[in-house]
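ARCHIVE CARD
Drawer: 12
Card no.: 0347
Subject: one protein chain, sequence and derived structure
Cross-reference: see card 0346
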Amino acid sequence: MNAQNNKVTEYNNGDNNNSSNNNNGNPKLNNNPARKINLPNKLTIFRIILVPVFMIFILIPENEILPPTWCKIFAAAFVLIASLTDLIDGIIARKMHLITDFGKFLDPVADKFMIIGAMIAITAADSFSDMRFITVWVTTIIFLREFSVTSVRLVANSSDGNVIAAGVTGKIKTFSQIVCIMTILLEEAVLSQNLNTPPYLFSYITIAVMVIMTVYSGFVYFKNYWNYIDPAK
């Protein structure tokens, strides 16, 4: 038996032999195993599903359904849950040897959806209108960086089939973005009231750190994979 046929992958549970035996004599059945998505990738998909959920809580108008403070707390809670799935799916994938090209592609995409979705909602929400001038520019920087990096990733994949996973600086960048979003959501509702600090002090600090890491990680990414888009080639 060819070892390749028994390999357990994202779409193959290793039961090729049994499925082929069960399908003998029945030409109407498909000999290919049913497509399956492993646990880390399910968590990544779940993270994407959570994006519109916390966006809704951020965008709920004031004096509608829930008090603004609770809307922000619920939004922050869902952002935190989504962020934890990012941590957990990576641990499971490495520990159980479930790293796949699909996962390497989808995981950073899910992070982009999460961060850009949250920043768009914050920019559009009336609750954060005092910060709108800043958040518009920050969201634009994040979007341009992620769009550029994704373009390089697609070029790399189309040229030699290389699926580029998120690097260390990319993960630090994502962490700084999550901290920034959580701070923006919770500062006015929780932190400022208890610490008596100037409005959005911590938010502006985390925004500055986030922008620096976003730009720097983009620079590192292009430096490492410049050979795929080098105009001199």
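Annotation on reverse: The helical segments are 16-23, 39-59, 68-95, 101-124, 132-160, 168-195, 201-224. Residues 1-36 form one domain.
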